[in-house]
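Contributing: when you submit paired examples, paste them exactly as shown. First protein:
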Amino acid sequence: MRSIPANKQKAKVTQLTVSKPTRLMEFLIEQLKGKSRTTVKSLLAHRQVSVGTHFITQFDYPLEPNQLVTINWGVVPEQTRLRGVRILFEDPYLIVIDKEAGMLSIATAKEKLLTTYSILSSHVKKEDPTNRIFVVHRLDRDTSGVMMFAKSEKVQEIMQKEWQEAVIRRSYIAVVEGIVEKDEDTIRSFLKENKMLFMYSTKVPGEGDEAITHYKVLKRSEEFSLLEVELETGRKNQIRVHMKEMGHSVAGDKKYGSKLNPLRRTCLHANILAFKHPITGEELSFETPPPHRFLTLFLL
């Protein structure tokens, strides 16, 4: 291990060379003697750790021999703090983010400026004005959580073409209306969009795309149930339609039958996205906790 002061005006950095295959958190704890696990987690969360030339926040990011890990002990550069968006992972091919509720994924006829796409586009152009980003999948405006963008058209095409095979796990946390009686279950149907851009469910094979949703109840209150929902397929508005179909619309989702809006948003959060990297083949997994406000609805 060697410490290198960048200059008298800048904070000290520590550079570490990887000697054997390992995971980033394990490597840092082993190398940074005397630093607690909490301190290491904080360094990762605040984008103070980079592997090669890229900031990494993923605690189980795989490391290979001879890679250079750099820890910046100073203040995080201002340009990494983006409005409504927290970068979880970035490399030359992908950006994985945690999106706040209220942010559109891409521009619409009514909203063209402040979108997740426009914010990340500005972010990558700071490094090189010719850089671009490309949409891989979307989250609805009021849905928060983990989503991914590609940094080239080639990577976008690979991910969209191989989405079903590439995605290992896609999980959400949802607050739904009423008391869901079954502790866990699977919903299977076919989803189709009508001329009003409204998705609806049918049991008739061939009348839409097959949609499979698994759920498990985490908590119940007198008015709501907290669910962990896992997608086996990824159709447009799949969770929202399937929750409506079973008689427990997502809270705040007026379009699909909700009558209550306790948090003034659709109570849906994309908490886990795990996938195989389209270029390196590595299996990557990202998880963010549900908004604290979801849990306040279940306090005694």
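Second protein:
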Amino acid sequence: MSDPHDVKPPISMLWESTDPAAALTDRFGFASADGAVDWLNGVLADHWGLRVEACERLVISDANCLAWLVVDGRRMIAKWSMRQSVFARLAAIARLTSWLDERGVPVSAPLPATDGRVQVEVDGFSLGLQNVVDGDLLDIADPAQVQAAGEMLATMHAAMADYPDAIPTEEPKAPRTQLVGNDFRSANILWADGRIAAVLDLEEAGYRRRMDDLARAAVLLGTRYHGWSPTPADVRGAFVAAYESVLPLSQDDAVVFEDVIEAYLTGMTWSG
């Protein structure tokens, strides 16, 4: 492998219309992409005992920066946040993701540092490291993928209902709520080899009725990063039916479920 600075990694914004080089400096304090890679190289050496061989690209999303790396021959993603108010929550989400991985749920599990932490606070940032999972974003035009997605959300709900630890949230846990992911949609679901390869990004996890999480996922299932539009009704129906084949709604929830769907449909701001 070549030196990580042989080719300057491109920088982009995930969804904002902002100059990415300026954002890298203003939000994270790095004068250039090379500076960010230098910092990553030191952090991964000190805390994971790993060496960065190459950086393919940097992507900024709000207070987060993601780097696609080649590390000791493996493709990995380092993701760090500069928003200190969420550091405890990020560490809790990393522990939840590891717990789901241990139970066979296909997630992108964090790689523990040499001291066992799955989220490391360093230099004013909170950083996690994970392996790249190969796959394509979920395609709701494929009935097999929609079926698998519905079954997967039910599997995740069943597992997360048993999670023994608490996730810090702004709102207290209410009756009939449980831990859910809150962001189950195409942008966060990878498909490969005829199955769901990984559910990504549990940073929105919190406590809601699982009916609410199912309704939100049904409405937003096809959304990615830009041009949001509601999932077609027939796809929503197939997705919900697949979910209920694994984890049926209660009779009370089934009665009002279509009203919950309609509330999401009318309450969203669509750009597609």
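If you have annotations for the second protein, write them as plain sentences, like these:
The chain is about 35% helix and 20% strand.
The longest helix spans residues 143-160.
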